[in-house]
Amino acid sequence: MNALLIIDVQNDFCPGGALAVPDGDQVIPVINRMVESFGHVIQTQDWHPKDHSSFASSHEGKNPYDTIQVDYGEQILWPDHCVQGTNGAEFHSKLETNKSEVIIRKGFRKKIDSYSAFFENDKKTKTGLSGYLKERGVSDLYVCGLATDFCVKWSVLDGIKEGFTIHVLEDAVKGIDIEGSVEKAWKEMKSAGANIILSSQI
Ligand code: VGL
Ligand code: ZN
Fold first, then answer.
1. How many CB atoms lie within 10 A of CB 79?
2. Tag placement on the chain: N or C end, fewer CB within 10 Å?
3. What are the beta bridge partners of residue 55?
C-alpha cells in the first residue's frame, strides 16, 4: 500500500518564517495535487518547546548555524523555530491537511533534536511511525516537503533502514542548503536506494 508522507510544511519553514527555506512555499501546490491522488496521507510537524536545546538562543555566546557537540554527536544550532503553540509551528494555511490520517510530532523532547519522521537524532528514540505504517500495511512511502537536506533526508534514510520502499518527489521538496548540504542529501538518498521521481510520474 502507498502513502504520501508530507514533512514539516509549517509557517516557520516558509518565506517570512523563522527558519525559512528559500521558496519553501512553492512545494505547496505540487503537494496539494499529490494529496488528491493518494489514498493515504501522513504528515510530520516540527514541535519544539520554547527553550529547545537545538536553538542557538539556548546556548550562551552561540549563533544560529554554529555547531556544538552533544551526547548523540554534532548538532547544528538553529534560530528559534516551530515553537509549540505558535503560528510558526502551524501548517501553512494553503496546505491541504484535511485528508491527513496521522500527524507525527517530533522534536518535543528538550534535549534531543529530531529531523527524521522515524527516529530522533540520537538514532534510538522512536516516533512510532514505523510501527504505525507496518500495522496499517503501508509498504511504499512517497516523501515530499521541507527541508530536503534535513528532515526530508533523514526521514528517507531511516525509512529505507526500516524496510520501506521510499520514493522522493523531487519537485515537491526544497532545501535549506548549508555548505552544499542539498547536493550531499541527494547523493546520500540515492546511494541509500531512494527512488527519485517527479510528481508528474504519479
Ligand atoms: C528542520 C532544521 C531544524 C526541517 C527542522 O524540517 O528540515 N530543519 N528543524
Ligand atoms: Zn526543528
1. 15
2. N
3. 78
Three-state DSSP class for residue 63:
coil
As a whole number of angstroms, the distance between CA 161 and CA 91 comes to 28
Cα dihedral 55/25/4/116 (nearest 10): -20
Residue 106 annotated among the catalytic residues of the structure:
yes
Q: Helices H, strands E: what count in the chain?
A: 4, 8
Q: What is the DSSP letter of 191?
A: H
Name the residue of 9, 78, 116 to mutate for ligand 1: max ligand atoms within 8 A of Cβ.
78
Q: What is the dihedral of CA 173, 179, 180, 186, to 10 degrees?
A: -50
Specify the length of the chain in residues. Answer: 202
User: Model's pTM, two decimal places?
Assistant: 0.98
Buried b / exposed e over 100-128, threshold 16 CB at 10 Å, is beeebbbbeeeebbbbbbbbbbeeeeebe
Q: What does the pLDDT look like over 136-165, one tens digit per residue? A: 999 999 999 999 999 999 999 999 999 999
Contacts of 61 (CB under 8 A, 6+ apart): none
**Residue from 27, 95, 115 whose mutation best tests the ligand 1 pocket (most atoms within 8 A of CB):** 115
Chain centroid to CA 73: how far? 20
